[in-house]
Write a structure and sequence with these properties.
Number of domains: 3
Number of helices: 5
Order of helices and strands: HHEEEEEEEEEEEHHEHE
Helix content: 25-40%
Number of strands: 13
Distance between the termini: 51 Å
Structural class: alpha+beta
Strand content: 15-25%
Largest sheet: 3 strands, antiparallel
Shape: elongated
Radius of gyration: 34 Å
Length: 239
């Protein structure tokens, strides 16, 4: 990450100092002025308050002037087009305040970015010309991308990506604890069967509902039946 400081952060620091000096300074100046006007035994304290108030106001003005003097080197995020201001030109990656992603920078040059769609969840992901691998922001699976040398970039991405189970599985209905209209309707919709066929299958349990399906589909169906008082088991298909 770049060590360049954001101009907005520096401006905020100076503005905070201006408020910290200015508000107490104005209050002290007012109280000191009132004390001097009416005199009395507290005249000495009133003079001290007035002097402190003047110093506080001057310090506040100085801090406010520094806010305007903060230099800003703006870079535009190539992903969301948001402008990010820094006190100097960033030489390394910085995080965009607009989209929260890293703006790829190498030796002060913003790298080209490209967009690719995840083949598993269809989420759009970004990578740059320096990337050697890409993991989907949504489903954490590895997305193959082309590298500068024309090859496929993987590097160490496989160790962090979620891997797809390519094995086939059977979904078995082991038993029905309590039959209900909701369960019958759910099974009709899932299996495209009529009411009588669903009842016959429930009575024949244990029975294989699906065979040779991906694990993700089996888990999805199992999730749909959860809460319907049935026992459904996922088993590896016999090869």
């Amino acid at each position: 990450m770049s060590s360049a400081k954001r101009s907005s952060d520096i401006q905020e620091i100076h503005a905070h100092k201006a408020m910290a000096f200015g508000i107490p300074g104005v209050i002290a100046l007012i109280l000191g002025g009132i004390g001097i006007k009416y005199g009395g035994a507290m005249i000495g304290l009133a003079i001290v308050l007035a002097v402190a108030g003047v110093v506080g106001v001057i310090m506040s003005i100085v801090s406010m002037s520094k806010v305007k003097k903060v230099t800003s080197f703006d870079i535009t995020c190539p992903i969301c087009q948001a402008r990010n201001g820094f006190t100097e030109k960033p030489m390394e990656d910085v995080r965009c305040t607009g989209c929260g992603r890293l703006v790829p920078i190498q030796d002060g040059r913003i790298l080209k970015v490209f967009q690719v769609q995840c083949g598993f969840c269809q989420e759009l992901n970004w990578y740059n010309e320096r990337s050697v691998g890409l993991i989907c922001e949504n489903c954490d699976r590895e997305i193959p991308i082309s590298t500068a040398d024309g090859g496929q970039g993987h590097a160490a991405m496989g160790a962090y990506a979620a891997h797809v189970d390519t094995e086939k599985y059977d979904l078995v209905l082991l038993g029905v604890q309590r039959s209900s209209e909701e369960l019958i309707s759910a099974l009709q919709k899932i299996m495209s069967l009529n009411r009588n066929q669903v009842k016959q299958m429930m009575e024949a349990a244990p029975v294989t509902m699906f065979t040779g399906i991906p694990k993700m589909k089996a888990e999805a169906i199992q999730g749909q039946l959860r809460g319907h008082h049935v026992t459904v088991e996922i088993r590896p298909s016999q090869k």
